[in-house]
Specification:
The chain is α/β, with parallel strands linked by helices. The protein has ten helices and six strands, in the order βαβαβαβαβαβααααα.
Length: 216
């Protein structure tokens, strides 16, 4: 079986060494390239085409968000996991819109990295539990301040099932298989979900799911 090929992008050599050591615990994974800045990360990604890129959000020359945007635009099948010191909603929104599949806090990378890479490599999303908690707390506070109802409650039971599976990163075809219904029906459910939640694309849907605490 082919190994999972990983690109590491971070300007701190000691951190890259630590991440590589953790990743090497999995014999079926291989760190095939390392970058010390965002421009180098993009160049290596395009040259080597690894399966996953793990990118620091604060790299020099080009930050991790812009690096992600450029990589995903040119290599849409590549999965990107963002590393950050900040559980900040603005950063998370930017990362998702750029095409990242996960957001991992650096201070928990030693315990969460393997789990995060496993999730992202299988097509799912991953967010550090601390990030999910901050976003859920902010979301609940926002609803309370505005005195508005949670639109999630307007979803049917089937729509909630579809919503979670899409937010986890499953394709329409995979969701259809899991729920034993047609892809066309899934697409109809997806359209209704977007309309009911007032979100406009998959990135916003995933963000809503994290805020709501549906996925972590």
């Amino acid at each position: 079986m082919a190994k999972l090929r990983i690109l590491l992008g971070d300007d701190h050599t000691l951190l890259r060494n630590g991440l590589r050591k953790i990743l090497q615990e999995r014999a079926e994974w291989e760190v095939v390239a390392e970058a010390g800045d965002g421009r180098e990360a993009v160049r290596l990604a395009l040259d080597i085409e690894p399966d996953i890129a793990i990118l620091d959000i604060g790299m020099p020359l080009m930050n991790g968000i812009e690096s992600t945007r450029q990589i995903v635009r040119r290599l849409p099948n590549m999965r990107v996991l963002i590393l950050s010191m900040h559980a900040n909603e603005a950063y998370i929104i930017q990362a998702l819109k750029a095409g990242a599949k996960g957001y991992l806090l650096k201070d928990s990378a030693d315990t969460e990295l393997l789990r995060a890479v496993s999730a992202v490599s299988s097509g799912k999303s991953y967010f550090s539990p601390a990030v999910s908690k901050v976003m859920l707390d902010d979301y609940v506070r926002h609803l309370a301040e505005k005195g508005i109802a949670d639109r999630y409650d307007s979803l049917s039971e089937r729509e909630r099932e579809v919503f979670q599976l899409i937010a986890e990163g499953h394709s329409n075809k995979e969701v259809a298989t899991l729920l034993s219904i047609s892809p066309a029906t899934i697409e109809t459910h997806r359209a209704h979900i977007l309309q009911k939640l007032d979100v406009h694309n998959t990135a916003e849907l995933v963000l809503y799911a994290v805020r709501r605490g549906v996925i972590s």
